Amino acid sequence: MKKLLAFALSILMVASLAACGESEGSSNKKDDSVSSQSDVTENETNEPEESSEESTTEEATDEETTEAQSTGDDDTSSAIDLTSTSKEKPVPLGEWAKSAIYAVEDKTYHNVDFRITKITTQSEDADYVKAAIEQNNKVSSEYGQIDVSELKIPSDCELCILDYEVKVPADFPKSDVTGNISSPDEDFTVTTIKGGGIPSADGTSTYIGLSTVSDLTLEKDVDYKPGNTYSFRCFYAMVKGFKDYVFQVTTYPDGTKETSSDLIKYGYFGIK
User: Fold this and answer.
1) Do the Cβ atoms of 234 and 188 come closer than 8 Å?
2) Are 205 and 42 spatial neighbours (Cβ–Cβ below 8 Å)?
3) Measuring CA to CA, which residue among 255, 229, 253, 249 is closest to residue 76?
4) DSSP annotation of 203
5) CA 70, CA 191: separation in Å to the nearest integer?
6) Residue 22: CB partners within 8 Å, gap ≥ 6?
7) Angle at 91 between CA 85 and CA 93, to 5 degrees
8) d(C-alpha 127, C-alpha 134), whole Å
9) Of 265, 47, 251, residue with least CA distance to 166
10) How many CB atoms lie under 10 A from the CB of residue 235?
11) Which H or E run contains 62?
């Protein structure tokens, strides 16, 4: 599972990242972006406390745990060009955006449509967050298992779940043998709207490592094919009550074959 190891082991990087000073905390998964989930600056060395999951509430049904939330509108004709967005004007929650992903078959980037359908924090719905982690553990391999107690999330932070959808056009290049395509999942990182780190709940320190967004597994062995819409899910940690952030995505223009830093484009999804 992409970034899961980085998420679980990032607590080991406290000393080195704290010494680096305040950082925006947005990066692409293809970069060396192992970010700490509990790094604190401002000369503060708070010992992270383990996050506890609610255990007395009723568990969600199988349908609730496996189905990413949707607005029910599958019309992407008015999808926003993701590269035209900014931190100040991101794609609104629930709206479609067009962005290119890499097709293995012709080694070219092609447009697909994305939308974030739901953001859920533990404060808002602890049952949903718990069920999402349990669903991942139910269908994932040994290496994809998540033990929340080992994440060592600071006491003023909480786990959050990001649900999103990807609509793949019918003409997206596919395998001549199987008719399948590679997983069309997207890579998100958290970045603050104003830049810099994320302030702790009491305002006395700044977290510089809450940018990591890690994948969760919804079901086993999915065959992805053009012409369909697929649901995906991720998790990340955030300071309780903090809302001044967006999700950054890195992409290339539709039709790109030879990639370079000069061609990289950025787009942004909002949390509301």
Assistant:
1) yes
2) yes
3) 229
4) S
5) 24
6) 41, 196, 197, 206, 208
7) 165
8) 10
9) 251
10) 24
11) helix 62-66
The dihedral formed by the CA atoms of 98, 101, 107 and 108, expressed in degrees to the nearest 10 = 20
Q: What is the pLDDT of residue 152?
A: 87
Q: What are phi and psi of 114, to 5 degrees?
A: -125, 150
Q: Where are the beta strands (DSSP E) in 33-121?
A: 80-81, 97-103, 108-121
Question: Which pTM does this prediction carry?
Answer: 0.75
In residues, how long is the chain?
272
Amino acid at 67: E
| Average pLDDT value for residue range 182-198 | 94
CA distance 265 to 254: 11
**Joined tokens for residue 235:** 């998790």
Q: Report the pLDDT value the prediction gives residue 208, as an integer from 0 to 100.
A: 82
- 3-state SS, residue 18: helix
> Could you read off the pLDDT of 147-156 as tens digits, one per residue?
998 988 999 9
